[in-house]
């Protein structure tokens, strides 16, 4: 009986529009961070960087070819780890990491 993790994390990459959405989202978060850093001369916080990295990893995982299921799964797990670290930082009140 296949496990739920294999069915959800190590499935074939969706490709196409989903990969484009994730990669454009990462680009928008990076652009927002760059805008605040360069134009407004202030740093918006590391929340934007966490989201940028998470979206970038997810977009890269979805844009891989179908025969690279294991690599896509590893990238998806890395994206989940980034999001869990962000939630842990929010939960434990690590304001220095978020700001």
Question: How does this model look, in words?
Answer:
This protein is mainly alpha-helical. The chain has one domain (13-98). The protein has 5 helices and no strands. It has helices at residues 4-8, 16-38, 47-62, 69-91, 95-98. α2 runs antiparallel to α3 and α3 (47-62) runs antiparallel to α4 (69-91). The longest helix has 23 residues, at 16-38. It is flat. The protein starts with a helix and ends with a helix. The model has no long low-confidence stretch (mean pLDDT 85).
Q: State the helix count.
A: 5
Main β sheet profile: none
Order of helices and strands: HHHHH
Considering DSSP H and I runs of 4 or more, what fraction of the residues is helical?
Answer: over 70%
DSSP strand tally: 0
Q: Indicate the structural class.
A: mainly alpha
């Amino acid at each position: 009986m296949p496990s739920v993790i294999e069915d959800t994390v190590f499935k074939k990459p969706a490709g196409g529009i989903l990969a484009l959405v994730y990669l454009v989202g990462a680009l928008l978060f990076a652009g927002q961070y760059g805008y605040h850093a360069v134009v407004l001369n202030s740093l918006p916080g590391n929340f934007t960087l966490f989201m940028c990295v998470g979206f970038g990893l997810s977009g890269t995982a979805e844009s891989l070819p179908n025969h690279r299921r294991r690599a896509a799964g590893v990238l998806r797990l890395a994206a989940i780890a980034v999001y869990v670290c962000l939630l842990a930082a929010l939960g434990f009140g690590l304001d220095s990491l978020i700001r």
